[in-house]
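#dry-run=false #mode=assembly
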Amino acid sequence: MTQPNRELEATILTFVHQELLPAEVTIDRDDDLLSDLLDSVAVLRLAGFVDETFGITTGPRDFVVENFQTTASLAQYVARTRASTR
Amino acid sequence: MTRSEQDAGTEPVDRPLDTGGLTRAQLPIAIGQQLHAESPLYNMAFAFVIEDELEPERFRAAWRQVTASSEALQTRFRSGPGGRLQRFSSSELALTVADFSGQEDAVARFLDWGRARCARPLPLDGPLVDSVLVRLPNRQTGWYLNQHHLITDAWSTRLLYDRLAASYLALESQPEFAPRPVTADRYYALAPGPRASDRSSTTPDRTTAPGGLTLYGERPSPVHRGTASVRSSLQLDAERSSALRARAAEAPFASVLPHLSLFALFSTLFHAFLSQISAEPETSFDTPLLGRSTPEAKDTIGLFIEMFPFAARVPEGTTFRRLGAETLARAMDLLRSDAAGTAPTPEHSMSRAVLNYLPVRFGRFGDAATAVTWLHPGHADHLHALRLQIHDFSGSGRFQFDFDLNRTHLSAAARERIPHHFETLVEALLRDPDQRIDSIDLRTDDERQQLDSFNQSDRCPTPERTVVDAFFDTANRHPTRVALELVVDGTVDQSVDYAQVRDQVAILANHLLRVHHLQPGDRVAVLGDRSLESVVAILAVLSARGAYVPIDPAHPEERQKQLVEDSGATLLLDPPTVRQALDHGHDSRPPEPPSLTDLAYLLYTSGSTGRAKGVLIEHRGLADYLEFAERTYVRGEALRYGLVTSLAFDLTVTSLFLPLITGGTLELYPRAAGALDEAFLHAVERNQIDFLKLTPSHLSVLRSGRFEATGVRRLIVGGESFSAELAAAVAERLAPSAEIYNEYGPTEAVVGCLVHRFDPASDRVGSVPIGRPADHVQIEVLNPAGQAVPTGVPGELWIARHGLARGYHQLPEETAARFVPGPEPGAAVRYRSGDLVRFVDPTKLEYLGRTDRQVKVAGFRLEPGEVETLIETFPGVERCAVLVVGTPGPADADLGVPTPNPGAGCRRCGLPANYPGATFDAEGTCSLCHSYESIREHAAGYFRTLDDLRSNLDEARAQRRGPWDCLMLYSGGKDSTYALCRLADLGYSIYAFTLDNGFISEGAKENIRRVTDQLGVDVEFATTPAMNEIFRDSLQRFSNVCNGCFKTIYTLATRRAHELGIPAIVTGLSRGQMFETRLTEEMFRHGRVSPEEVDQAVLASRKAYHRTPDAVSRTLDVSLFATDEIFERVRFVDFYRYCDVDMEELYSYLKQRVPWVRPEDTGRSTNCLINDAGIFVHQRERGFHNYALPYSWDVRLGHKKRDEALEELDDAIDEERVRSILQEVGYAPQSGPAPESLQAFLVPTADASVDTSALARHLGRRLPAPLVPAQFHQLSDLPLTPNGKLDLEALRRWSLPTARHTRPPVEPPRGPVEEFLAGLWRDELALDEVGRGDDFFELGGTSLTAMRMILRLCDEFDLDLPLETVFAQPSLAGLARIAEDALLAELDSELD
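#status=ok
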């Protein structure tokens, strides 16, 4: 259940580093994305990115802290959602 | 740095920026500013109070550094070519210093000063930033910053503030610190340019457009809307602010982003608020999106935000939580697309409100705390009535709600209540997010008290005696006074005094009791016209403790029978039975009188189940109403009354009983002959009465000129919505002391329960208010949840009154649904009226319409269900919907009982009854038939013989410059085919010319090829790519396609004839069309105009026609028509002027002469497929068939029989096909004000089509005529709303006809000649208003109307002007001047 989704995490981390964070900042899978790292525009772009890349639809019920707190939790949310829609 | 400081005093030097224009975010702001050049509406001003004593010079240096690095801040604009704004830049933005340090209350003074300062506009060509450092006492510093919205938004302002603070701080330790390169902010390179769709600068009318919510029922005039605005602020305390934050963190608002959650929460509140103050279930506001999706944009000063509409559904019964889930989803979509930089093009918004949630926080200035005040410049954009801005700029933890309220959109009363109503909603959300939004009472304490005093209607006691007691008392007091007079043909036919009436009533009552053993409460049907017998019968039934059931003898017999049966009447009284009983009875002692709780009458209104509903009224209700009416209208006087309306109409109760209990005299006018009951006209013409009660429909007939003045002193109007404009017109014809009352009251609440005395000074627009409650009446205005609505908001009227109806006769379910006890135990029963009303102000109500679909047409209350049920029993109909479309108001044709067959028009020619300007005599013959009759012989002189044709064409032939003698306009239809053949028979060399307009049927084309082939005639199929544009223009101007097509043919054919040297163009214009377009009665009267003069005028008209700008002149080469030469080279010959042939002869000739076959694919026309589309639009927009007039001429001239013509006009138009054609052409049928009419929408059973004429006849036999739909539409299916209900709005849009396009205001005519001319034009062109600058032809004048108008002008002033005068001077003022000159010349010559 809580098996890490390394591949998903890597894809998400790449996007976060390349598109959302300043060049000098590097983060890890357990860093809190919401407290300081990403502003609201960046979080919204991140939601758009996972929807588009992984073919899911993040509605208001999914757009919650538990899912978006860290790269790891986001990857789990993506994996869960993909599994349930397949 | 020091160098630049020395430059500080010099004028900044302008340098042009790159030539690029405005960004797309700037465009709407620039347009708004240009519309309101002198208004400071876009000033974004802030006052910062910084808790530190700042050094002015260091602050100035920081200011320079920061502003120098921003492209946006330095922008200025100048008006460039074409009024377009061009950008410039100013090199230096000044910072000035003001000193408030010596002042008491310095901070407050600073803020006041700032408010005044920001109310001055920042001219676009000057610096768009005004920055002032303000010295304050107590170690504080003020900073006033005002920026034009064109170059900034809230985010940008915070950037500026942050950079300034950083710069100021850095300059302390490193004076040379330069935080950013000078050209860091390239706003114009970064912000997107305008979209292709952003060009429109039009400002649609948001108050009346669909989707433009009407707030508090207030509809501001679109003309007087400005930018003046008032800010009203609601500062939420810390406790409620944090409670709101907590709510936002819960379901359904919870999300990753607190700002998104709060935005969704505020949106939910605002949608809820808008729906409650507009009484609409669908709401929309505009809200800005950040527009900064990239890191660069986030770090750039300038304007990026754009407004997007945000819509929601707030259905009946929804809760905050349910609405919140919807708004969060929508908010998330909006913000995600904004963050991705893919926000869609803002839709065309009609929103009248803005929600601006500003999650911007200004931090500390260095170490110093800062308090921020957003200053309101006293103006805001003119499009929105209401802007709600929510912010906590200083980070105090408390939300501030700033309501910027447009003073021209919202009344002072509404502006005052808005923050209170919103606060109530905020508290409701905090208390219980699961409560129904529509059950929240938004009203303030003041509003509740106002309702209480409105309902204080118990100042006098309730009645103690019945109408029977009152009548006998009156009769005993004035036995010899005349009580009733029957007026026949303008004179009194019978007259009876009170003693006689009293005795007859008693005799008949005793007869009912003794012979028929009438028991209290027994119903007795009274069938009869307004007559002495009917009045006596009604009083006798009451006197015998029975209840009368009036039956109108004018209603269809089946309906009469049904009502009598339903009422359970034990007896039916008509005049013969009354007379008989009176002849045989003797006992004139009044029997035992009824009690106040006895049933008095049973009156039928239309019912939703397909059955009429009988309303049961007791004596106490009747007596209570009559006593109120006596106090209000009669006040002790003995007046003379007129009885002119049906006894089965509850409105009539007033005029029937009031005279007989007050010692007045009642004149009875029997139903007048003919379809329309014109008894009221007879009463007005005789002019003896003081008191008259009518419907607005009656009045609108009176207004149309049938009476000049009347002695009526008390005019009571009821039964329908009463327009202020009609009231004013009527008031003009009454004595100044006369009183006009608008009385409102459903039958169920006894005749009248609200009344308003018309005041011409204050009741000027819309409908006359229905005023305040009658005695012993209490009302409530409730929304569908049963919650009282705030003042001004529309709601349903609920009525409690003394003696309210018992209910509906034998309809317990309907009674329970409509008669509802109040919520408190023992509370009075209230009648749920189904009428939509609103408070105009706390002292009077206004009637708005029906809440359900129940409607009134011409005073008839109607539940469409009744009609639908009947229609659905007709063969071939599967389903059906009936509704009223158009605006309520006078529609003369609908008044009373119109002709039972809606298709019927002139008895002779079939011209429809609603043809503009046509009048009908008593026998139903139209004015055109009469007019033709009188000139038939003279007109015959206009027509010629085939010999004349030959000599005309032979004369032309001599001038030919090629092989052809004439060009024949050949459509391929039967008429032009016949003409072509005859020309060929005569031996002319013909060039046939056909316009292929893209819709010519294949069948017609084959005919053309076959016929020309057989005749050996050359044929050209001309085309133009501009056809759709021409059709569109023609539909816009004339509501048909033919006019555009005709002009195209004439234009192209004339050009071809010119090129080929053809000297004559022959047309197939029918004689009917010649009458329709150029021959008029006035011409021939006394033989005053010769055919040659007509020809001259036609030629002049032809020249003007080809020189009129329209789609043809735009898209085709019309240079040929610029000079008169072409009209000398090419003559026009109308074949049928020289040849008279009837249809039968024509068809039989064609049959043997050529292989012409009637095409089967064209509908009405014999050649053209788009024709049906033209007919459809014409019927929709003008209300009648565009072939009605020419066909009536065919009948008049004996070429067709009336029934044939009518049958041909009864088109079965395939509406879906027509709509696809219209879509192809690019034309949407116009919608706008149109007279109210009943329309039926049918879904036929599979593979069937419904014979709608037969259906109309079927209904005519079973329903009162106004309930027979005026039009029937056949659809494949009925449209439904998402909830699965019938989509009435869609049907309405589908069917809405328009009477006239609205026009901008015009300059009124001056002087007698102009005024007379204006009257003529209004008459000829069927317009309401004509100005002195108007052009006759632009208003839709034709050559015919032009000539007729000139002749009538000549008649009036005894002048002799050439017919073609108007073509030279088509303006009203110009034409009037010519007439005046001619008059003067004549006067001069007489003096000589």
